[in-house]
Amino acid sequence: MVTVLKEVDAVVVGMGWTGSILARELTKAGLNVVGLERGGMRSPREDFAIPSIRDELKYSQRQELFQDSAMETVTLRHARSETALPMRRLGSFVPGTNVGGAGTHWNGATWRCLETDYVLKSHYTEKYGRNFVPAEMTIQDFGVTYAELEPFYDKFEKLCGVSGQAGNLRGTKVDGGNFFEGPRSSDFPNKPLQRGLAGVLFEEATKKLGYHPFPQPSANASAAYTNPEGAVMGECVYCGFCERFGCESNAKASPNVNVLSVLMPDPKFELRTHAYVKSLSYDRQAKRVKSVIYVDPRNGEEYEQPAGIVILGAYVFNNVLLMLTGGIGTPYDPVTGRGVVGKNYCYQYTDAGVTVFFEDKENNPFMATGAFGTIIDDFNGDNFDHASLGFIGGGHISAGMSNGRPIATRALPPGTPRWGKEWKQATAKWYRRWFNVSGTACNYAHRENYLDLDPTYKDALGRPLIRMTYNFKNNDYKIGAFLSQKAADIGRAMNPTLVTEPRFRDGNYNAVPYQSTHNTGGTIMGTDPSTSVVNRYLQSWDAHNLFVMGASVFPQNQSYNPTGPLGALAYWSANAITTQYIKSPGPLMPA
Amino acid sequence: MAEVKLARRNFLKGAGAAGAAGAALATGLSACSPEATTAASAPARAPDVWHTLNATEAAFISAAVDTLIPADELTPSGSEVGVAVFIDRQLAGAFGNGARLYRQGPFLPGKPEHGYQLALTPREFFRAGIEAANEWTRKTYDGKDFDRLNEAERVEAMKALEAGTPEFAGFKSSMFFDQLLQLTMEGFFADPIYGGNRDKVAWKMIGFPGLPASYREEIKTYYNKKYDAEPQSIADFS
């Protein structure tokens, strides 16, 4: 029995960053908006309070704030010839749930993509020739440019009170910022955060080598801040409990504090928690989504919520799942290369670098914050010449420990036993005296990497799990080898007591160790319906009242953490909806 | 009457530390403690109580954590600082019973990159792993369970498990070792509210200050300087 509810102007699926932003912008434009969240309410005051939030076992090891893999997960196979198996525990990535989504437990790294990232395919083709990008590398342009997105980046950074140092103010290079960034219309709303030992040593070493170090832009506020919505952030206290934890001092931007605190009192907005969206009801004839069907997971009751506008703001995998199960758009077929839904799933290639150990220094790793890196972008994107390298793209290299939580954050010199007397002595000696210098790389789309529906495994609602057919490819391994050497040069330039051999991931993609929650693609954006799921305004080509948010629209994964870019795209799309679509509902671009 | 005898034995073993018996009797917990886990050198604390481990399992886990974290000048042994109790509590609770573990079949063997693919909950996995490990040590060391081995033999046996040398039915012995080591490290370094890391010994050993973790000024004043603070637990603020 499905209870059919009264139609609303707009329904938003998922109350993380993008869902909260869209709900806010649409209610401001006068619409009545219902926000659906599969999990429960989370409020920093109640749920992220001291002392309980400083619990590494509960939040980090037992994954208190993450999606429950007993309810749903994804399956993995490395190639089409294999049988996919479920990721029975979260490991490599950790999607969120509950109000705020992963926006409650992120680290706060808030980037802008490079100008070339948005025109990736045409840039490489124009600069290096028509055949430079291998045919199996299915990268493409976003269909929107950096210049078009700039005002929306600016808006998102101000929403989050981002701390950082501009490197390019309206075309003028500024010392100490990212030399390679596109022009920004205004400086960051907050000054850069303090640095620890790793950041300072990294800055010295990279300057000596002729690179351009700068502080990682961070949504951890370096000073108390009131955002343009009127939401108030506290000052970061460098507690070292950022990623995987909620912030008790409201210093780390979250949808809960930075958007929902002002959205919740708005009578045009209604939040429904424990509303787990199961499917979209699609009218193929009218090219519209009529309604969303959701389940209350506490008692199994089903509801149908009709809406004029439907915003998909779930995580990457659920956005793709809802499109595939709803029959909206053509599923991607890796054999023919045709179809789009599930295409260009990308991940991230991390940890290409070295660990350095200093006998004579004190790093105090527990005095830290999430986005605490000092970075160079000299080997990112096409900031360096690729003519003879044999790969495309690159990554940023950074140093700066985000925490010293002792269960998970301990490194020892190579060859040290993992237990016993010698292990204890080495742990006591080195715990405070090491850090990594590592490259975090892009991951460019490949014809054989994609998402579809698993034929065997089901989630708690009885739907197929998303099946990930995915592996790292030669381009990734080559970038890894390259970045690890550059990181080793930097590490050695710091004169550490010990430095490890350069390391990079050279085997199959491994679902077990944490790498990053930077999954992208599957509902990619573009300007051609035969190669994209949504148009440049994130509007579905197949249902004009459906707008898809988040990193699932990225045609490939640039090296940067996705929250900044997806925040900018959310505001960009919201602007198109409120200034164009509401007045005249229909396709915003000709197909 | 058996209960009284056990309590009596604990009293005798702990007699070196004045007040141990009084504390144990006052809590009334001593009666449940199996012989194998009474820590002779631990001062003034109640004997360990097991929520889920049986006596053989408790003896194995206690001996294992003492081998992985031996007593030395840095800290007492794993069991003396509550790591065995921690593992028992974890296996008895939500984690041990498969919380957040996707448990729908079919269960098929995967590659290591797929992670855990067994149908067993962590509690069941440890039951199977301990049985298999004891069976292997009985075969290899004159019929002795792991906890009956001398120190050198325990180290040797642990290294064999770590290397995956013993053949277990259903899963690799190195997989059991890895999960045992993981829980041991969690118990050693987690907040003491979970039963391990008693007296914050692990945090003192490495210089982790615990709570409240607010370093707005300290991050400047302690740049490249050792930060010495008496570690504090969640319990100290509750």
Helix and strand arrangement:
The complex is a heterodimer of chains A (591) and B (238).
Chain A: E1 2-4, E2 8-13, H1 17-28, E3 33-36, H2 44-47, H3 56-61, E4 74-77, E5 85-86, H4 120-128, H5 146-160, E6 168-169, E7 172-173, H6 197-208, E8 214-215, E9 225-226, E10 232-233, H7 255-263, E11 269-272, E12 276-283, E13 288-295, E14 302-312, H8 316-326, E15 349-357, E16 374-376, E17 395-399, H9 420-430, E18 434-441, E19 450-458, E20 464-469, H10 474-493, E21 498-499, E22 546-548, H11 563-581
Parallel strand pairs in A: 1-14, 2-3, 2-14, 3-11, 4-20, 14-22
Antiparallel strand pairs in A: 4-5, 6-7, 8-16, 9-10, 12-13, 13-14, 15-18, 15-21, 16-17, 17-18, 19-20
Chain B: H1 2-13, H2 20-27, H3 55-68, H4 83-92, H5 122-140, H6 151-163, H7 173-189, H8 201-206, H9 218-221
Helix pairs in contact in B: 1-2, 3-4, 3-6, 4-7, 6-7
Stretches of chain B where pLDDT is under 50 for at least 5 consecutive residues are 1-42
- Which structural class fits the helix and strand makeup of chain A? alpha/beta
- Globular, elongated, flat, extended or rod-shaped: what is the shape of chain A? globular
Secondary-structure-based class of chain B equals mainly alpha
What share of the residues of chain A does DSSP label as strand, in percent? 15-25%
Which regions of chain A have little confidence, pLDDT < 50, spanning 5+ residues? none
